[in-house]
Amino acid sequence: MNFSAEELKKLAAPLVLLVALLAAGAGLIVWVQREQRLAAQELAVARTERAQADERLTRIAEEEKEVSEKLAVYRRLKSLNILGEERRLEWADAMRRIGSARELLEPPAYTVGPRRTIASAAGKPANVELFASTMKVGLALLHEGDLLGFLQDLRESGNAYYSIKRCLITRTGAAPTGASIMPRLRADCEIDLITIIDRAAKT
Q1: Within the chain, which residues score under 50 in pLDDT?
Q2: How far apart are CA 133 and CA 115, in angstroms?
Q3: How much is the pLDDT for 159?
Q4: How far, CA to CA in Å, does 45 sit from each of 38, 42, 52, 109?
């Protein structure tokens, strides 16, 4: 098919427009593809940042929970006067008070040994030191319930954590008489009185 010069002249403008449109279309396609790639990259970055933010929030929540739990333990220890130096005068006062309140037949006989360091404790912070002093207690009892009540009162008295190592109960062999009440049992116990010192809290 042959075109005359006049016809070619008439087709020139539409052809130029067609080429321009094709070029514009190709350019638009390239631009759209580039924008899609950029949008995909931005979306990936946003997802990564969100995942990191979620991870940080989770970690912060876990740390807050851990701090809250440790603070609750600390407050409990503080309320029991377990933190700090030994309170031997308070220990002696507690022994007299419990013996009197329980109406024991004889005042508790006790001795407290020297303080020693507890070397190992799982999860113990480096600046926290645990100490124990062994108390040997002798009690005259009417029955086993007197011992259980005494130990319960001792634990609730605070001023140390009372860890009972052993208690040996023996019969006294004393025969009951009408004139007076005689102890039928004797208990000899060894109890560790544990205190905690946080060296960091002093600085």
Answers
A1: 203
A2: 5
A3: 82
A4: 10, 5, 10, 73
Check if CATH label 3.30.499 holds for domain 88-202: no
Query: Is 88 strand, coil or helix?
Result: helix
Q: How far apart are CA 144 and CA 164, in angstroms?
A: 16
CA distances, 149 to each of 68, 98, 144, 156 (Å): 33, 9, 9, 11
Q: Tell me if 94 sits within 8 A of 154, measured CB to CB.
A: yes
Q: Report domain extents, the chain.
A: 1-79, 88-202
pLDDT at 129: 83
Tell me the longest C-alpha to C-alpha distance in the chain. 149
What single string gives the DSSP state of each residue in 115-173? Answer: -EEE---TT--TTEEEEEEEEEEEEEESSHHHHHHHHHHHHHT-SSEEEEEEEEEEE--
| Conformational region of residue 103, where left means phi above 0, alpha means psi within -120 to 50, and beta covers everything else | left
User: Looking at residue 175, what is its pLDDT?
Assistant: 60
The structure's pTM equals 0.58
The set of residues, in sequence order, having a beta carbon less than 8 Å from that of 170 and lying 6+ positions away, is 185, 186, 188
